Amino acid sequence: MSFYSQDWVAKLGIHSSAAGAALVLMLSQGMPASASTLVVIDYSYDDLDRLTMMGRADGPLVDYTYDEVSNITSQTIANSADFDGDLLADFVDDDDDNDLIPDSIELNSNLDPFNGDDAALDLDGDGISNLAEYLLGSDINHKHGDLNADARVDAGDVVLLQAILSDLLAAEPGQRLPGHGDVNLNGRLDVGDLVIIERIYQGF
């Protein structure tokens, strides 16, 4: 029986019972969803079939030690950068710049996962910082209240939401998203959203 000592090993879909196994995996950790790269990973096990070492061909090495009842007593990582100094290697760190916005969100939003300063910026120019939008569950890339997706909040957005609320038009799925039409972030399109969008349009 193989022993898998770290949940992130399982997260990557690793499954091997052979000592010293070399697997080729398609990994996209820390990369845009559309991108992937081949990484060779070697595993070493002890006589009790416990994982003692995992080494990636691109550098990182992870060593494990155990007590007499097979509890992990230590995990050490070598040959891997730690950009934010949080003692978590970049290749397993979900937030390399420690700005509270996950790397995956930053990459999908064309932000820099190695620049913590961009959390305070306002990518979509709607007056709400990137970090605040992420914490609110809003869309960093989309201007609040821009229902017709023309990169501005204008009379067209107000008229469109009025028509949706009056059942003259059906809202498209994207218009219901947080920060798109649902600007008060309550999970639905309502009069509260209309009031906010009208105020944004009027410059308040």
Keywords, separated by commas or semicolons:
20% helix, alpha+beta, 2 domains, 204 residues, 5 helices
Polypeptide structure, described:
- The protein is an alpha+beta fold.
- The chain has 2 domains: 7-78, no CATH class; 103-202, no CATH class.
- Helix content is 20%, strand content 17%.
- It has 5 helices and 5 strands.
- It has a 5-stranded antiparallel sheet with strand order 1-2-3-4-5, with no helix packed on it.
- Helix 4 packs antiparallel against helix 5 (191-202).
- The longest helix has 12 residues, at 191-202.
- The radius of gyration is 23 Å and the shape is elongated.
Question: What's the gist of this structure?
Answer:
Helices cover 20% and strands 17% of the residues. It has helices at residues 7-11, 103-108, 130-136, 155-165, 191-202, and strands at residues 22-27, 37-45, 51-56, 61-66, 72-78.
What is the element layout, followed by pairings?
Layout: H1 7-11, E1 22-27, E2 37-45, E3 51-56, E4 61-66, E5 72-78, H2 103-108, H3 130-136, H4 155-165, H5 191-202
Antiparallel strand pairs: 1-2, 2-3, 3-4, 4-5
What value does the Rg take, in angstroms? 23 Å
Distance between the termini: 64 Å
Fraction of helical residues: 10-25%
Largest beta sheet: strand ordering:
1-2-3-4-5
What average pLDDT do the residues reach? 80
List the secondary-structure elements in sequence, H or E: HEEEEEHHHH
Overall number of domains:
2
Query: Which class of secondary structure composition applies to the elements?
Result: alpha+beta
Low-confidence stretches: 1-35
Number of discrete helical segments: 5
Strand runs, count: 5
Task: Identify the overall geometry.
Answer: elongated
Largest sheet: 5 strands, antiparallel
Strand coverage percent? 15-25%
